[in-house]
Amino acid sequence: MSERETLEKMVEDAAVKLSEHCDSVRVFVTKHAVDGESDTTIAFDHGRGNIHAQLGQVMEWLDIQRQYQRNWAIRNDKKE
């Protein structure tokens, strides 16, 4: 089994294990991989349970992160 396949299986297994205790799960991972020719990043995600709950949680997290960035910009703008 390749490194890529092993990592993908680990992500799936983690989502399955967490789903035994949660209503919905979505796991995202990235890894810098060197294939001998070029530097690349591989990414995997796997989810279990209610897809709408997964999407809602991801969207809420993104909205919060965007607001944190806005707040940071406002604070730094006031310093000048």
Describe it for me?
With 80 residues, the protein is α+β, with helices and mostly antiparallel strands. It has 2 domains: 49 residues, no CATH class; 31 residues. The chain contains 2 helices and 2 strands. It has a two-stranded antiparallel sheet. It starts with a helix and ends with a helix. The relative contact order is 0.14. The mean pLDDT is 92.
Structural class: alpha+beta
Which residues form runs of ≥5 with pLDDT under 50? Answer: none
* Largest sheet geometry: 2 strands, antiparallel
State the helicity in percent bands: 55-70%
Helix and strand pattern: HEEH
Q: In angstroms, what is the radius of gyration?
A: 18 Å
Report the end-to-end length measured between terminal Cα atoms. Answer: 55 Å
Mean pLDDT score: 92
Task: Please give the domain count.
Answer: 2
Strands of the largest sheet, in order across it? 1-2
Number of strands: 2
Task: Please indicate the percent range of residues in DSSP E strands (runs of 2 or more).
Answer: 25-35%
